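Quick one:
INPUT:
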């Protein structure tokens, strides 16, 4: 199904307040630089369970930087229609790598679904 480029995914916020957002991000002309983000896999301190893949930083000049919609600490939950949920961090990273190298380059864009935590709002007295 087609979703307009700059719209919030048509879901209400999740119970913990995070928003689910879908973005179609144009890759750089050659596509060789990929998305231009540094990723981290988070694990539970208590159980060692994989908790998902998050954006650690956005590389200046890369596709994500030029697009401007992704944020540090966004959790990647799907890429080009393929869910990353329920996968080990290693398997999720491999899926991301594969999507950016083949399918992403052929289309010239990469479709990402991310979870974003709410901004911390300072309440004044």
């Amino acid at each position: 199904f087609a979703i307009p480029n700059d719209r919030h995914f048509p879901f209400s916020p999740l119970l913990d307040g995070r928003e689910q957002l879908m973005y179609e991000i144009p890759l750089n002309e050659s596509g060789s630089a990929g998305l231009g983000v540094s990723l981290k896999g988070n694990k539970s301190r208590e159980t060692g369970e994989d908790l998902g893949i998050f954006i650690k930083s956005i590389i200046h000049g890369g596709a994500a930087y030029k697009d401007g919609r992704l944020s540090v600490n966004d959790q990647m939950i799907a890429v080009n229609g393929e869910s990353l949920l329920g996968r080990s961090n290693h398997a999720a990273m491999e899926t991301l790598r594969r999507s950016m190298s083949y399918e992403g380059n052929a289309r010239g864009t990469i479709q990402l679904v991310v979870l974003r935590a709410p901004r911390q709002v300072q309440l004044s007295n």
